[in-house]
Amino acid sequence: MILHFTNARLIDPEGGTEDLGSLTVKNGLIVARDGTAPKGAKVIDCGGKCLAPGIVDIGVKIGEPGERHRESFRSAGLAAAAGGVTTLIARPDTLPAIDTPEVLEFVTRRAAESPVRIRHMAALTKGRDGREMTEIGFLRDAGAIAFTDATRVSTEAKAMTRAMSYARSLGALVVCHPQDPGLSAGASATSGKFASLKGIPAVSPMAERMGLERDLALVEMTGVAYHADQITTARALPALARAKAAGLDVTAGTSIHHLTLNEFDVGDYRTFFKFTPPLRSEVDRLAIVAAVADGSIDIISSMHTPADEESKRLPFEEAAAGAVALETFLPAAMRLYHAGHLSLAALFRAMALNPATRLGLPQGRLTPGAPADLVLFDPDAPFLMDRFKLRSKSKNTPFDGARMEGKVLATFVGGTQVFAAEE
Question: Which H or E run includes 216?
Answer without folding.
Answer: helix 206-222
